[in-house]
Amino acid sequence: YYTGRMNLQSRYDVVISGAGFVGLSLAVALARSGVRVAVIEKSALSSQLEPSFDGRLSAIALGSQRLLQSI
What is the pTM of this model? Predict the structure, then answer.
């Protein structure tokens, strides 16, 4: 987790915009297969600790659960 500015000298194979459920799942899957991944999120991680944060959970189908567990 990096909270500052990205190093412009760094090289990434994929840049993912959005650190939501889908973005982070994709980032993990790609990184585990050796892809250099950067995830860009507009909200600071600390904002998730605020009382106003909408921390809804997602319901997923069994097939999706199996896919995520394989990552």
Answer: 0.68
